[in-house]
Design brief:
Strands 1, 2, 3, 4, 5 and 6 form a six-stranded mixed sheet that branches. With about 190 residues, the chain is of the alpha/beta class. A hairpin with an 8-residue loop joins strand 1 and strand 2. It contains seven helices and six strands. Helix 1 packs across helix 5 and helix 5 crosses helix 7.
Length: about 190
């Protein structure tokens, strides 16, 4: 699954917002000979629907306020659960370039060159965004979207609460022990 609890929470946040996800995508050696990874790469098609938890009213309004309706969305996501990290090392050009190539919306570099300096780029029926998820960020980067981890935790709890009748019974079908625990814990809170 994912390398740490933060990446796993964000994985399920994106999954429950209709995205298909690749986690810990290896970005092979750059010109300096260093290998890196993208914590999460996510793609969402415009007409996603699921009977349980996958309707228009189930999607997170904060996340979708950034995107145009009807577009295919690609997200390059980095997750930081600690308080101290170097923001200059997040979304480096080489890593963004390799991630955009892997998402595969275009073969034309001119279509996505501007994402290096901006949080999002739109072209045709597509949008690609860089998303940084953190515990806290006093000076947010201007070249990426930012969502705090507490928002993601709240979204997941609300979703579990809303569909508890299905989620509790089906919890063991989810491959994530962390998600199974969140469902179980939310059911305990509801039955107090």
């Amino acid at each position: 699954m994912n390398a740490n609890f933060g990446e796993e929470l964000v994985y399920w946040y994106l999954r429950l917002n209709g995205f298909f996800i690749i986690n810990n995508f290896v970005l092979h050696q750059n010109s300096e000979g260093r290998t890196s990874d993208a914590d999460l790469l996510a793609v969402r098609l415009p007409y996603v629907y699921e009977e349980t938890g996958g309707r228009l009213e189930d999607w997170d309004p904060l996340l979708f306020s950034y995107f145009e309706p009807g577009k295919t969305i690609g997200i390059i996501c980095e997750v930081k659960t600690g308080l101290n990290f170097n923001t200059n090392k997040i979304f480096q050009d080489y890593n963004v370039n390799k991630s955009v190539q892997r998402i595969g919306f275009t073969s034309n570099e001119l279509d996505y060159q501007e994402i290096f300096d901006n949080s999002m780029v739109s072209f045709g029926d597509y949008q690609i965004a860089k998303l940084l998820v953190t515990r806290k960020l006093d000076n947010p980067k201007s070249d990426c979207l930012h969502i705090k981890m507490v928002h993601i935790r709240s979204f997941l709890r609300e979703r579990m609460h809303k569909y508890m009748d299905r989620k509790l019974g089906d919890r063991m079908f989810f491959s994530s022990s962390l998600l199974q625990y969140l469902i179980w814990d939310e059911s305990l809170k509801m039955n107090r």
